[in-house]
């Protein structure tokens, strides 16, 4: 199924009686547990409105991210939430779409400074599971007219509706960027440094600790600032004082390359070894890594978002989901299984189970928006 | 403004209701004397008043839970109230409701500088959240004009913004977690000190739901390190159109000031007379503020003033001292007070795409002439959030209705050019009946379905947000 218009999409879902797997570019690897006929949104394509002076862009959901980035680059603007490209990690061949980015609320290292995909999403059009076309939000920066279904749709992985159009806030590409690189700190000291950097007024736009044996023998820390040239030079120098230790400063394209590597989790690309994406409070990251090590979960780790986002790559084929989820639950965080061998994927819920009332509310919302239970069924189920 | 007919059966049960509430709350936390409930008869939308059945002032999440469970069982509507500063009537009672005020719940529960958050009870005022972390060099970014008085509970209910959200975002972008009490009394934790949701982004839909999904009793808020310094520049133009183009050019240049405020001639004149800010005599005034170290401020201002000069300003005033900065902001910050001195006014809140500013200001001026009511404009230009102030005389028969009619026309215009009815004040009762201008029946049905799931009996703040005819079947 590949609708070419929103009307066709609505007709398809009105008539659909059995499950559909919703596919944008097919790069997010979310199909482990979903069966059904594929609904390809690639026919809904194109940028329908772009106003650089108003920092807004409206696109059909199936538009490739690359196409949008090219349009923005012509006016020196960008998607500031720095969406990750999952292809390296999932091994998929497709082209990521903006609908996929929104549906999975995909953000990158800059999320700690500017917010997530959901924070840049100004409006949506979508077709729910009964084939009803729903609009919410719009294309202006501030909008509190009625409930915010825009946020709800971001990260709903297609389970409440199939996105047909999204409108986004975009930002200018800054004049300059620079990254402070330090090495050799263990997780505890490294994350403490990152948190200290985040507590300065120097507007850090990326803060990552990369564990030993990931990009080099030793652990490495990277702290990024972006902005006007003079300002970047000033802030990176002040940060070097705030976070003492031997360091080097890299700028421009060299700095950008370091962050593409973090954004796309390049060190953990390839193969099907279990890969977790874990969100905790930044200062809890070192303790979590230690307790997992103590429980015999051998791993390599990248702690982005000053420690708040842990990419955990496991040796072997087992995702060790019981241990990982219980340790993460103890810290009140959540762990998403992004990649695993297929048998493990089928057995382990992709998303972290939530409290009973939250699961009940989520189930209630799905029953309302997808009364036939046909949109990526089971994808977000707790078990 | 139409409100639902109070449920006579609920009103008749008042003695039983009050007795049961007294059993679960301290004696002074249940207010049922009509002389005292009058204090809760309206919020900042003072044109509409109605005393509630009673008011309760719980001190803990547990007490909120017990109150809601009782009201749920007895089928009594509940209207949550923060500080009562809503300009949209969000906390307006009905005669058959219990007002649930969170004012006594104002404690700081936890501050965590390493993870950059603060957890507070939601009756705490917006400004006192920043106050709690200020000495350590941090602040809470959303800054609604009412920040001295308004409560975090209301900020979350309305997804409040402020002058500085061009850079820092609105409440929803700074909210990490909440404790939510559902109408049946159930206590739910959503989010926390970490980022992103493990499942559906319920936090995103709770924020801005105008107290209709649950009562938020505690909130985890993002705090940020204070910038090293800030400085405004004042720029005057002889036409709204040119000022609008200047705003657009600055934004496109890649500079992101923390605030871009816009005032038109009627507003400039009134505020200058009132405050003595010394504003120039011109058609349009911009106040643009940037942040950073001294060198960073100068770097940004150099670019901004170069763009501003290309548009041939009648005045360009860079602040050279803290005193001058305060003077530049003085008129803007006293704008609403100034308007209140000369007239009654109604403050609108529509948002428009930034590039339609000149068109919209021109059309508002035409409408103002047609209706015979003056309109002054003061607003957040960087994000297109307008605040047209319609001046009228509340003591003159028919003027309120005329003012409301003009307000409705202006909001319809905002939607027509691609904007929305409300950017930061909320729908409440004020814009409730205009919702079908922006959304169709299917769009509203989808929103109401959310409330069905959270509050199946539609007891929480039920007469707000959705046109009464549209929600009639659900309100029972």
Automatic annotation (TrEMBL), chain A:
<dbReference type="InterPro" id="IPR016166">
    <property type="entry name" value="FAD-bd_PCMH"/>
</dbReference>
<dbReference type="InterPro" id="IPR036318">
    <property type="entry name" value="FAD-bd_PCMH-like_sf"/>
</dbReference>
<keyword id="KW-0274">FAD</keyword>
<dbReference type="InterPro" id="IPR006094">
    <property type="entry name" value="Oxid_FAD_bind_N"/>
</dbReference>
<dbReference type="Pfam" id="PF01565">
    <property type="entry name" value="FAD_binding_4"/>
</dbReference>
<feature type="domain" description="FAD-binding PCMH-type">
    <location>
        <begin position="1"/>
        <end position="173"/>
    </location>
</feature>
<protein>
    <submittedName>
        <fullName>FAD-binding protein</fullName>
    </submittedName>
</protein>
<dbReference type="GO" id="GO:0003824">
    <property type="term" value="F:catalytic activity"/>
</dbReference>
<dbReference type="GO" id="GO:0071949">
    <property type="term" value="F:FAD binding"/>
</dbReference>
<dbReference type="InterPro" id="IPR016164">
    <property type="entry name" value="FAD-linked_Oxase-like_C"/>
</dbReference>
<dbReference type="InterPro" id="IPR016169">
    <property type="entry name" value="FAD-bd_PCMH_sub2"/>
</dbReference>
<keyword id="KW-0285">Flavoprotein</keyword>
Automatic annotation (TrEMBL), chain B:
<dbReference type="Pfam" id="PF02913">
    <property type="entry name" value="FAD-oxidase_C"/>
</dbReference>
<dbReference type="GO" id="GO:0071949">
    <property type="term" value="F:FAD binding"/>
</dbReference>
<dbReference type="InterPro" id="IPR016169">
    <property type="entry name" value="FAD-bd_PCMH_sub2"/>
</dbReference>
<feature type="domain" description="FAD-binding PCMH-type">
    <location>
        <begin position="48"/>
        <end position="226"/>
    </location>
</feature>
<keyword id="KW-0274">FAD</keyword>
<dbReference type="InterPro" id="IPR004113">
    <property type="entry name" value="FAD-bd_oxidored_4_C"/>
</dbReference>
<dbReference type="InterPro" id="IPR016171">
    <property type="entry name" value="Vanillyl_alc_oxidase_C-sub2"/>
</dbReference>
<dbReference type="InterPro" id="IPR006094">
    <property type="entry name" value="Oxid_FAD_bind_N"/>
</dbReference>
<dbReference type="InterPro" id="IPR016166">
    <property type="entry name" value="FAD-bd_PCMH"/>
</dbReference>
<keyword id="KW-0560">Oxidoreductase</keyword>
<keyword id="KW-0285">Flavoprotein</keyword>
<dbReference type="GO" id="GO:0016491">
    <property type="term" value="F:oxidoreductase activity"/>
</dbReference>
<protein>
    <submittedName>
        <fullName>FAD-binding protein</fullName>
    </submittedName>
</protein>
<dbReference type="Pfam" id="PF01565">
    <property type="entry name" value="FAD_binding_4"/>
</dbReference>
<dbReference type="InterPro" id="IPR016164">
    <property type="entry name" value="FAD-linked_Oxase-like_C"/>
</dbReference>
<dbReference type="InterPro" id="IPR051914">
    <property type="entry name" value="FAD-linked_OxidoTrans_Type4"/>
</dbReference>
<dbReference type="InterPro" id="IPR036318">
    <property type="entry name" value="FAD-bd_PCMH-like_sf"/>
</dbReference>
